[in-house]
Amino acid sequence: MLQMKPFEYIAASSVDDxxxxxxxxxxxxxxAGGTDLIVQLKSGRxxxxxxxxxxxxxxxxxxxxxxxxxxxxAAAACIHIAANRDVRTHYPALAEVAALIGGTAIQGRAxxxxxxxxxxxxxxxxxxxxxxSARARVAGPDGRxxxxxxxxxxxxxxxxxxxxxxxxxxxxxxxxxGTRAKYLRFIPRNEMxxxxxxxxxxxxxxxxxxxxxxxxxxxxxxxxxxxxEVGGALEGQAPSAALIEQAAALAxxxxxxxxxMRAPADYRRHICGVLSRRALSAVLG
Length: 285
Ligand SMILES: Cc1cc2nc3c(=O)[nH]c(=O)nc-3n(C[C@H](O)[C@H](O)[C@H](O)COP(=O)(O)OP(=O)(O)OC[C@H]3O[C@@H](n4cnc5c(N)ncnc54)[C@H](O)[C@@H]3O)c2cc1C
Prior knowledge:
Elements: E1 8-11, H1 15-23, E2 28-31, H2 37-43, E3 50-53, H3 58-61, E4 63-65, E5 69-73, H4 78-83, H5 85-90, H6 92-98, H7 104-107, H8 112-117, H9 125-131, E6 135-140, E7 143-148, E8 153-155, E9 158-159, E10 166-173, E11 179-186, E12 197-206, E13 209-218, E14 225-226, H10 228-234, H11 241-254, H12 265-284
Parallel strand pairs: 1-3, 2-3
Antiparallel strand pairs: 4-5, 5-10, 6-7, 6-10, 8-9, 11-12, 12-13, 13-14
Helix pairs in contact: 10-11, 11-12
Flavin-adenine dinucleotide binds near residues 29, 109, 118, 167 and 192.
């Protein structure tokens, strides 16, 4: 049986409290829902002397919308994100992603902040956050700063946070009128599985022209992958089947998959093209 090494536990009550606690030990770790962290501590893939629970910090569980956009507390549980009226109205694709991570029990604990900080190549929420131009807002010993979500995951399981920093919230700008977004993934089972490939897309169409398009991929590179060229190919054009085909081919060409127990690289690349075409068709109508 797997045995977890003992660790000290602190439930922080404010952002400053969490910064102090994280600065007190070199291998302190943040706990949000724990659906990744506890599994990793049990299996020995990660170690921690101190675990800092951030779920009791009001700012970390808040989901707040204003004229500029949505502030998603880093520890807000998926179940609350999926049910939130503002999220469902203005970011329906985000509500869908929150409702596909794990199953009901996992969604009661798991956060989108944890999904991002865990930096798995397969993280389902991250391609959509990139497509929606989300920014990670972090706090640490040197104060607060923002990181574009496409720059946040830097290697499998590694993120851009400096020592002592943690994610406070994710800010998603309010989508312009005419914007649609979609995340599609392929998993061998209907749920509770890791994506063979995933595609997040957002696009704005105004007066028959695409004014913004962003696409990012899951599970086909060491990190979630922003395919900037797709925007370059689509923006300024009128949506058409040929254009969607061209953009899907760019996404497929950007994929750098590996073969593993879930799928060989060629199959992943193929699925990446299929999902890109479907997701682009869904948002470009
Ligand atoms: C049965 C099961 C099914 C799953 N299904 C899916 C799925 O379908 N799709 C998917 O993408 N994932 C899935 N996962 C993985 C996991 O549930 C998600 O990645 C989830 O979003 C993690 O959120 P959490 O709040 O539980 O993170 P935690 O486990 O609390 O944290 C994850 C990592 O991020 C760090 N961290 C957390 N919050 C912060 C913060 N605010 N600042 C800095 N670091 C932080 C932690 O220290 C840890 O290293 C599944 C897991 C299980 C056990």
